């Protein structure tokens, strides 16, 4: 069983008047301790625990999120353009129906072609939404929670380093206080456990998420290419039919 506190468990600490004063004070103290630790690390007065492999995973995560966000934006632009082309095509067909005089041959066929043209555009747009955009949204939906947990891991690492430095300073002090040392050691073990549990989960998840990008990009572009190819085939048939009607009209 995980030593991490389950999400939402802080509700047990909520009284009828909200978060207790003790909890607020504890959170303020945590932030102060973290801030002090970060200052000492930046000044080079405290060593910082580094994990180059994990940092590479985070770089990959950020790159993957940037790429995914751009793809989502460009896909939405593409869909907006499909919608705009649908509207333009519809207006053009409506214009043809208006100028096509009632006694001209092929009027019914031209009207039917215009109707099918409208349905084909609608079907194409809807399939793009279902098979590309919604899949894209699901893919990107994984990132916010993991991003939040990466940030939390960073905070827990600072807590661990801070507890480690506090414990080391008490051990090397001229006048040793065994009670304080024991308490500091307990806090260090606790901080290390919380950090390591978060770290292990992310060490497993981040490479798996990174590897998933290949299949996702392949599936997305295959879907778009397949739908566009089919759309143009069907549209080509309608255009040929319309051309035949207009050749008959001219004759």
Question: Topology of this protein?
Answer:
Blueprint (H helix, E strand, L loop, with lengths): L13 E2 L2 E2 L1 H22 L9 H48 L7 H34 L2 H29 L6 H73 L1
Antiparallel strand pairs: 1-2
Helix pairs in contact: 1-4, 2-3, 2-5, 3-5, 4-5
Written overview of the protein:
The chain is mainly alpha-helical and 251 residues long. It is built from 5 helices and 2 strands, in the order ββααααα. Helix 2 (52-99) packs parallel to helix 5. The longest helix is centred in the last third of the chain and has 73 residues, at 178-250.
Count of strand segments: 2
Widest β-sheet, arrangement of strands = 1-2
Report helical residue fraction: over 70%
| Topology as a string of helices (H) and strands (E) | EEHHHHH
Q: Uncertain regions: pLDDT < 50 for 5+ in a row? A: 1-17
- Main β-sheet description: 2 strands, antiparallel
Rg result: 31 Å
Number of helices: 5
Tell me, rounded to a whole number, the average pLDDT: 86
| C-alpha geometry | rod-shaped
Structural class: mainly alpha
Q: Span from first to last CA? A: 83 Å
Query: How large a portion of the residues is in β-strands, by DSSP E?
Result: under 5%
């Amino acid at each position: 069983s995980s030593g991490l506190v389950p999400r939402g468990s802080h509700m047990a600490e909520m009284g009828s008047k909200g978060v207790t004063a003790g909890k607020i004070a504890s959170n303020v103290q945590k932030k102060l301790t973290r801030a002090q630790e970060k200052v000492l690390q930046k000044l080079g007065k405290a060593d910082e625990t580094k994990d180059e492999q994990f940092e590479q995973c985070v770089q990959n995560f950020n790159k993957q999120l940037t790429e995914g966000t751009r793809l989502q934006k460009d896909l939405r632009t593409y869909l907006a353009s499909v919608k705009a082309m649908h509207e333009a095509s519809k207006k053009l067909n409506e214009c043809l129906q208006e100028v096509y005089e009632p006694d001209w041959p092929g009027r019914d066929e031209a009207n039917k072609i215009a109707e099918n043209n409208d349905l084909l555009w609608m079907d194409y747009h809807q399939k793009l939404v279902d098979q590309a955009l919604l899949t894209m949204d699901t893919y990107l939906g994984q990132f916010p929670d993991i991003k939040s947990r990466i940030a939390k891991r960073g905070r827990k690492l600072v807590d661990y380093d801070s507890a480690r430095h506090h414990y080391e300073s008490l051990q090397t002090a001229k006048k040793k206080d065994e009670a304080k040392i024991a308490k500091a050691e307990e806090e260090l073990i606790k901080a290390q456990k919380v950090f390591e549990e978060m770290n292990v989960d992310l060490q497993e998840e981040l490479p798996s998420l990174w590897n998933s990008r290949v299949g996702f990009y392949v599936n997305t572009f295959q879907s778009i290419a397949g739908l566009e190819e089919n759309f143009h085939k069907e549209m080509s048939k309608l255009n040929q039919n319309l051309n035949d009607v207009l050749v008959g009209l001219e004759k």
